[in-house]
Design goal:
about 200 residues; alpha+beta; seven-stranded antiparallel β-sheet; 5 helices; about 30% strand; globular
Length: about 200
């Protein structure tokens, strides 16, 4: 009888634990900020015309300060907690932002829609220099030279441009600027669209 009473409460307990973990992490590590009032990076000349509508839409959406509706949903599958935020204007979904946390990372993904279709994705991955719990005591015990320090962490950023479900262009802040191989672009397209589809199913 006790088991039957406890099982229905399990999802609520897990959600509460995820919230506690999220609060603990955000207290130690500064949050990656959502994009606000920013223009996109300059586009390559050979893609200028195709990318311009995508870049203009990115600027328009991230400059919006008033939304008709904002909906937040917890992401229970993440290690240390996470949340997805859906932004609507006049009943139309314009942007999704997902924020995920782990012991060694923080990830912020922004999905921008144009005419109801995915047009631009900005992914930022905060790779911590040490796990979030790795303080000076742990450092000394391991005979290490570093403890967790947010300022010593690295941020990797990907900008992905879509047209009718096809990944047209990808920019990474850590590459040399050379074009990516077609096979790699196809893999990234499948990964991003799968993540986007999962988020759309949440709402």
């Amino acid at each position: 009888m006790l088991i039957k009473k406890v099982i229905p409460l399990l999802p609520l307990f897990l959600l509460w634990m995820g919230s506690i973990a999220l609060q603990a992490q955000t207290g130690k590590a500064k949050l990656l900020p959502e994009t606000a009032n920013q223009e996109d990076l300059p586009a390559n000349e050979y893609l200028q015309q195709k990318l311009q509508p995508i870049r203009d839409n990115f600027k328009r959406i991230n400059s919006t300060t008033r939304w008709s509706r904002i909906k937040k949903i917890d992401l229970p599958q993440t290690g240390e907690g996470g949340i997805a935020t859906f932004y609507y204007q006049k009943g139309k979904l314009e942007k999704i932002v997902s924020r995920q946390f782990g012991e060694t990372f923080q990830q912020l993904n922004e999905y921008y829609l144009l005419n109801g279709q995915l047009s631009f994705v900005l992914e930022r991955y905060y790779r911590y220099n040490r796990p979030i719990y790795y303080d000076s005591t742990a450092m000394k015990a391991a005979n290490d030279t570093e403890a967790f320090a947010i300022d010593s962490s690295e941020i990797e950023e990907d900008r992905s441009y879509f047209e009718r479900g096809t990944l047209l262009h990808l920019v990474n802040n850590q590459d040399c600027g050379a074009p990516f191989a077609a096979d790699y672009l196809k893999e990234e397209q499948q990964r991003i669209l799968a993540d986007y589809k999962r988020l759309r199913q949440l709402k």
